[in-house]
Amino acid sequence: MMGVLRWLHCQITDLFTAFVLPLFGALLPARLTKSLFWRLAAWPGLFPGRYPSARRSARHFYGRAGELPQTWAWTTLMEAAETWRLKLGLSPRLDVEGNWPDRPGFVAASLHYGIGTGVLWHLREAGLSPRFVFRPVARGDLPGRPILLAWYRLRTRLIERLCPAGAITTGGARQEIARTLEQGDATPVILFDAPDLEGRWQLEIGRAQLGLRAGGTRLIEQSGARTIFFHVRVDRQSGRSRLAIEALPGNDGLGTQLAARMQAVIEADPGQWLLWHGIEGLYPPRAAEADQPPAPPGGDSMPRHSDPLD
After folding, report:
1. C-alpha angle 273/52/238, rounded to 5°?
2. Strand 227-234 vs strand 107-110: parallel, antiparallel, or unpaired?
3. Pair type for strands 227-234 and 201-205
4. Which of 38, 179, 215, 276 has the fewest CB atoms found within 10 Å of its own CB?
5. Predicted local confidence at residue 294, as pLDDT
6. What is the rounded distance in angstroms from the CA atom of residue 190 to the CA atom of residue 212?
């Protein structure tokens, strides 16, 4: 009986957090959306499994969770609302600081932070032909979560629509990125914050470290293509997104440059990093944590954010 109730709870909250609430928020003024979502994000039951996981990870890195899980839940809802705006043919609520290069052929590099879907729209509207690099969610990633699976498939179709030259998915991704950079007719968009216990890069977050995979950096260094770092943060006052664009000075030590910028972005407002719910088990436990019982199974039914270049 408890298993059935847990399953029903997941289906109802998946429906509300992926479809009902974001669709409603997409049509409200941004200030109303951000205020409504902030109140709703205070309830851990809105994201069963994911909210407790984000809270445990926050305690690992900062010693206490504070408002971080609520901010993570709020950002997740705000990001879903912007996804629905784009799906409905509306423009994103996006303010821009900085400029993209005039022509495609560069690499747009970032991390899972804030609201990123609107960046693909912005690149497309600028004539820079984005090609987002990602691993599509497979049915086996979300057992027992058909509504959440439908949501991720909807997002995949939106990504494909925003990438006129086609998104780049796993299975030959490196070769396709190399070909795109060689031809110079499109812009690969790559997120570099895939966690890994044995990662070559290390992010210093709070009082602990998180390893990251270094996938793709050597390919970009060898290509000679320019690397433009960007991130999108949700403004807590207006509810609008702020896209910051920065051209890196060169590709020497690209991994170190990207890690430093990603670390600075996360530290500025940690709760807006979207991977808090999915990194548990991908960092070494502290001595006190190692004595704690493991989290109950079946809580975090979410796909791992693996390196799309693998």
Report:
1. 40
2. parallel
3. unpaired
4. 179
5. 41
6. 14
On the question of pLDDT at 308 being above 80, the answer is no
Q: Report the share of the chain in percent with pLDDT over 90.
A: 76
CA distance 158 to 8: 28
Q: Residue 242 corresponds to which amino acid?
A: R
DSSP string for residues in 11-39: HHHHHIIIIIHHHHHHHS-HHHHHHHHHH
Q: How many Cα atoms are found within 13 Å in the side-chain-facing hemisphere of 233?
A: 15
Query: Measured at the alpha carbon of residue 227, what is the angle toward residues 185 and 252, in degrees to the nearest 5?
Result: 130
Q: Which two tokens stand for residue 187?
A: 């812009």
Residue 147: band (very low, low, confident or very high) from pLDDT cuts 50, 70, 90: very high
User: What number of residues does the chain have?
Assistant: 310
Its sign, for the CA torsion 176, 178, 179, 180, is positive
pLDDT (tens digit per residue) in 25-83: 999 999 999 999 999 999 999 999 999 999 999 999 999 999 999 999 999 999 999 99
User: What are the structure tokens assigned to 70, written together?
Assistant: 């609520």
Which residues are bridge partners to 97 per DSSP?
A: 244
DSSP-derived letter for residue 263 is: H
**Structure tokens given for 106:** 């560069």
Measured CA to CA, the distance from residue 116 to residue 195 in angstroms comes to: 18
Count of Cβ atoms closer than 10 Å to residue 70 Cβ: 21
In the beta sheet, which residues pair with residue 229? 109, 246
Burial category of 249 from C-beta neighbours within 10 Å (exposed 0-12, middle 13-18, buried 19 and up): exposed
